[in-house]
Specification:
3% strand, 8 helices, mainly alpha, 2 strands, two-stranded antiparallel ribbon
Length: 175
């Protein structure tokens, strides 16, 4: 009787291990859930809450500046003084991945993500693409190729997300 219990538990464990985990935004961008001392009020910041916010995002991207320490900021002081700019700063400097390994890890998670991306995950992936494009433009040789490959991979994931309707939730991304 004891071996039957072990067999049932083993079967349950294997069945449980094959069920896909519940996906949430913390899995794609874990740093969005972490509270930093400098930005404790901005836990899981999101920029796109209205059409005006989307327009502001494009203005921020037009006025984007990345210094030698790779800190991202908005050049225009008037735009930088807005409340939404604080969330943009937190997203760009504390949430999106900055190293090539973190970006590749994000890409791998995106490839396995079922269904369509949430609005904030899509927004963060776009910002990661902007950062990746900047790094590709500033790099040379093998590093340039590595950053460019990461950019193209993120582009393909986002293109797939936009091309396939939400009814194909079980369909996984392939590149």
């Amino acid at each position: 009787m004891h071996w039957k219990t072990v067999l049932v538990l083993l079967l349950y464990y294997n069945a449980h291990a094959t069920v896909p985990p519940r996906w949430n935004r913390a899995m794609l961008f874990p740093s969005a859930q972490r509270v930093k001392r400098s930005s404790a009020t901005l836990l899981n910041p999101v920029l796109q809450k209205s059409q005006e916010d989307v327009d502001l995002l494009f203005e921020f991207l037009a006025e984007l500046e990345i210094n030698k320490d790779l800190k991202i900021s908005v050049k225009d002081q008037e735009l930088a003084s807005m409340r939404v700019a604080e969330a943009f700063d937190t997203l760009c400097n504390d949430v999106i991945p900055k190293s090539i390994t973190e970006i590749r890890r994000l890409n791998a998670r995106l490839l396995g993500y079922p269904g369509m991306l949430k609005k904030d995950d899509f927004e963060r992936t776009i910002l990661t693409m902007v950062y990746t494009a900047y790094r590709a433009a500033q790099s040379q040789g093998h590093q340039k190729d590595t950053w460019a490959e990461s950019f193209v991979s993120l582009y393909k994931v986002l293109k797939h997300d936009l091309m396939f309707p939400s009814s194909e939730k079980s369909f996984q991304r392939t590149l």
